[in-house]
Amino acid sequence: MKLSSQLRQQIGFALLSVVTILVVLPILWVVGTIVAQGAPAIVTIDGWVIDVSWEFIFEMPRDGMRAGGVWPAIVGTLLLTLGTAVFAVPVGVAVAIYLAEYAQDTLLTRIIRLAIINLAGVPSVVYGLFGLGLFVIFLQFGTSILAGSLTLAIMTLPVIISTAEEALRAVPQSFRIVSFSLGGTRWQTIRRTVLPQALPGILTGVILGLERAAGETAPILFTVAAFFLPRLPHSIFDQTMALPYHLFVISTQVPGMPVQIQYGTALVLLIFVLSMNILAAVMRSRFRAKRQW
Amino acid sequence: MVMKPQAKCELQGVSYIYEDGVQALRDVNLRIFPKQITTIFGPAGGGKSTLLRLLNRLNDLIPGRCLEGRVLLDGEDLYAPGLDVHALRRRVGMVFATPVPLPMSIRRNLTYGPELAGVRDRARLDELVERSLQAAALWDEVSDRLDEPASALSGGQQQRLCLARTLALEPDVILLDEPTSGLDPISTAKVEASLQELKKRYTIIIVPHSVQQAARVADHAVFLLQGELVEEGLGGELFTNPSDQRTEGYVTGRFG
Question: In principle, which of A246, A247, B19, B32 could form an S-S bond with A73, CB 3.0–4.6 Å?
Answer without folding.
Answer: A246
